[in-house]
Structures are given as structure tokens and as C-alpha cells.
UniProtKB/TrEMBL annotation:
It comes from Thermococcus onnurineus (strain NA1). It comes from the Archaea. This is CCA-adding enzyme. Its cofactor is Mg(2+). CTP binds at residues 52, 55, 141, 160, 169. Residues 295-426 form the CCA-adding enzyme C-terminal domain. Its EC number is 2.7.7.72.
Amino acid sequence: MVQEVIGEVLVRIRPNEEERAFIEGLMREIENIARGRAEELGLDIKPYFVGSLAKDTYLAGDHDVDLFMAFPLDTPLEELRGKGLELGKAIAERLDSYEVAYAEHPYVRARYKGVKVDIVPCYDVDSWKDVRTAVDRSILHTKWVLENLHGRNDDVRLLKRFLKGINAYGSEIYVRGFSGYLAEILIIKYGSFLDVLEKADFMLRQKIIDPAGWLKSEPEIAMKTIKREAEGDKPLIVIDPVDPRRNVAANLGWEKFGRFYFKAHQFLEEPLVEFFFPTESTGENYLGELRRKRTHLVTLLFKKPQLVDDLILPQLERSARGFEKALRRENFRVLGWDYGYVGEEAFIMLELDRIVREKITIKPGPEFFTERGWDFYRKNERVWLIGKRLYAEKRVKESIVDVIVELLEKNQVALGKQVREFIHSADILVDYVPGELKREAYLFLSRKKWNLKG
């Protein structure tokens, strides 16, 4: 049964010969353009392809090209940044379109024949000791995987597709899942896709994975890495086989490892294609969920800032957490929150126990014999003592909409810096969302977005 499922999935995720020929030809074209432009600019660089295309671990239809332009180690960092961007633009001008993006240093995002092409400057490193910028390791990662994968490329594809299917793939800070490189390491370490699933329990108990044996060859540095990551309560510590200072699983969160943990067990018990390619839910009625639960949905809908996902999604998450804390202080119980964007509109959803509260709240004050106690006494109309502490009645806004508006006016919600002004002008919707958000609202309220048993 399990082999039948794996065979069916592999047919869908393994690139065919026509696709391979297209990709190989595309990469040769881009490399020739890169070499030619570098020569025209008088630059001594080496072009390297990195990532899943270079390692032949990419999924059918997933064709992001990562071209790294490696400068000599004696190049000053500012020169690498300046000349690297100049070279990236020169290459991209021969492609279809491009834009400048920013990470540790500027790089170029281009498109060519329908494929995304990232052109990134880096140093030409041979060892972790040469690494100067965060991207330099990518060359070493590609080389290590190619030397150690030994034909298990399809096992990597299976693991990647499984992680995508269970919503646990992607090391971005707003995802906190498994990176492609981590998936490759796990296959190399444990042997096959099924072996990795069977080791879910063992991984969690063992905690530390050291594929290159750094604990023996560089014990002091490796132990420093382990101690740092253990203090951060990370589910896994995978010492990078090309750099003992780095945990490959540093961005992996407990929620995404937990999803992998449960889904691995479920698949081994009952292997189904749906783990890799989940079917979309039908009958998505968010109003039915509200009636069933007798809760309320509050949605803040606002214009999406023109930011990349790496920036906007963490900002939205921070803001959603800010609303949860602020509303809790106002005696509203937030049962859950979600965030994201659809098209040009961003949203924050909050599930609440109620949308109206009492007109009066009891406000605790200071001890009566202090200067602050006298100030409290003067400002409030109905004041009494319980022990030596003063208390008073306070009239408050009743409606959740009025409460949120007041909280925003008084800047009493911790919001993401780059989305703050957009949230201040948000529409506040209660127990209603427009058509484009109905599915998001249903997945949020039904918990199908995160349900481990779904």
C-alpha cells in the first residue's frame, strides 16, 4: 500500500525528461550571459548555481533559479555589494524583467522564460572559516549535498512534498517550518523518506543531529552552538555539516515540528496521497461555525503595504498578538487570531467570546495613604476601600468596535511598525467578511488551518 502511494506521488513530483532539458538549457543560457557580462565589466567572479535545481532535488513545476556570483575573498564588502548589484542588473537586462531586492545586501530578482531567477553576490568560499556573509554558505551547502546524497534525490522530493502537503515546509520566519536543505540533510542522515518519518520520535528524543561529526572535530564550537540553541528551546538542533556555528533548524518552530510528528505517525499507519496533495475543504460556511460555537468574529481589513512576505507577515503577526493582549486587558477573551492578505487587502481576524461588555468595570487603585491614592480619590466619583487599597467604578465603552477604535486612538495596541498606519485606518467588521475572505474565515474558525486530525 505505502509503495503504491509513493509511486503515485513520484509520478506527479519527479521532473520528466522534457522539463529537465528545459531547465538545463535555461541554466546554461543564464550562465553564459553571466560570464559574458562579468567579462564586459572586468570582474573576476565565478558563477555558481545553488539550491534545489543545482542539487536535482526540485519538484516538478518548481523552477526557481539561484545564481550566485562569487567574488574573490580579498574583495572589500562594500565593493562586493556595489559591484555585485551592478553585475546583477547587467545580467538581468538580458533577461525578461527584474527588480532589486534587499537581504543582508542588495541582490536582483529577475524573470526569464517564466522562471524566477535570483542573482546574488557572495564570496568564493572553500570553508566555513571563509564565510563572511549569510549567503556564502549556500555554495558549500550545494557541494555537500551533491557529495553525500548518493542517488536519493527522489526521497528528498517525497519529503519536501510531504512537508508542503502538511503545511510544515519553509524556513521563513513567518512559516517556521522545515527548509529544503534540512529535508536534504535528514534524508542523507537517515537513509530514505520512510526512514525519516519513522525517526520522528527518535529525532525529538535525540534532539541533536550532527551529520558531519563536528562534535568530534570542532567540539568547542559545536558545543557553543548546542548550548545557545538549547537555551532557545528549539525542537531540533542540526549542526550544519558545512559550519559548526550554525543550527540548520534554527527557524523550525514547535508547531511545525509537531505537525510533522503527528502526520508522520498518521501516514505510516494509513498511507494516503492526500498527505502530499490535500484536497480542499467543501461546505466552507464560516457563519455556521460562529453559530455552532456561539462566538464572534472581528476582522480588521486594510490596504496591504507594498512589502515582501518576509517583512509584512511578521508585522501582521506582531499586530495580531498585540490585539490579543490589549483586548484581554479590556476583559474580552480572544479565543484565537489569524492574519494574512488576499490580493491588495491585508487582514487580522480575532475570535472573541463576546462583542459587548458591561457598561461598568471595577478599577483597582493604589493604597489610600499615598499621593497616588489621593489623586485616585479625586478623579473618581464612586470610591471605596478593600483593606488598604482603593477601588472605583469606571464607565467603559461597551461595543468591541468602540473599544478597538479607542485602543488605536490611544496607541494602546502593540502593532508592527510598518503596518501601523494602515491598521489605524482599517475597516472593523463584526461577524461578517467579504466574499474573498470567506474561505480564510472558515479555515480559521473551524481550525482546519491547523487541525492535526484533518
